[in-house]
Amino acid sequence: MMHDVDTSQKGDTAPLCRSEITDDDFLGGQLKVLQPVRGYRAGLDAVLLAAAVEANSDRRTRVLDVGAGVGTVGLCVARRLPFAEVVLFEREAALVDLARENITRNGLEGRVRACLGEVGARAGHYLEREGLKDGSFTHVLANPPFFDDGSATRSASKLRAAAHVMDGGDFEVWGRFLARMAGPAGQALVIHKADALAKVLAGLEGRFGRIRVLPIRPRPGENANRVIVSGIRGSKAPLSVLPGFVLHGDGNGFTPAAEAILREGRGLYPK
Prior knowledge:
- With 271 residues, the protein is of the alpha/beta class.
- It has helices spanning 44-51, 72-80, 93-105, 123-130, 158-164, 171-181, 197-204, 256-264; strands at 5-6, 21-26, 31-36, 40-41, 62-66, 85-90, 112-116, 137-142, 182-193, 208-217, 226-233, 240-241, 245-246.
- The strands form three sheets. Strands 5, 6, 7, 8, 9, 10, 11, 12 and 13 form a nine-stranded mixed β-sheet that branches.
């Protein structure tokens, strides 16, 4: 299991055929996901983000996976939490098609659906078409693009460009959309590179409070290379930085806590 990675090569992206798609196991084989060989491929980041979703004991759990790709994050949530309802929101039609196939082949049609849409200026058009209401989700999740328009070199691969270049140039557009879709006291959860933390916090500021930052460290004593940032819609509580989560021990193997998340579908925050 690896971090979400880009395996694109330069050149035009032809319509996907079966030879351009891999069939990958997640959660120890509990979930099977079709995804393109080239482009942005879901891995460890997707599973960690899904594991950060905590079930609500007093209300219905309704999850929006923004920029869902082939649906890995949302599908992991649905597999972990058997009563959660999940909407996968993705702007690339080819990936939406794969997400719908992934829903069916994992037997999750009753609780998960995939919608075509984007977080930018035309978001309202897509939301209306798909019957998605503002403020209707208890959790809004994002594993957003790693690069913005100002620093990224656009690839000739359309799927790579879609995965790695943000609408609107930075996380501000994403933060606004997450706040639009989160209900009262709804939770936003974002995983990103550690050096993008300032942008993520700026995008959530004024929209979400009780911000918690969880550093993800490859090994004990190493700097974090990912962060999971969570916040509560409308909260005025202050920001806090949690103890870091460590992925690997002395060797290349995962720590027991990481193994429990990746193989067994456990939650990131133990009860």
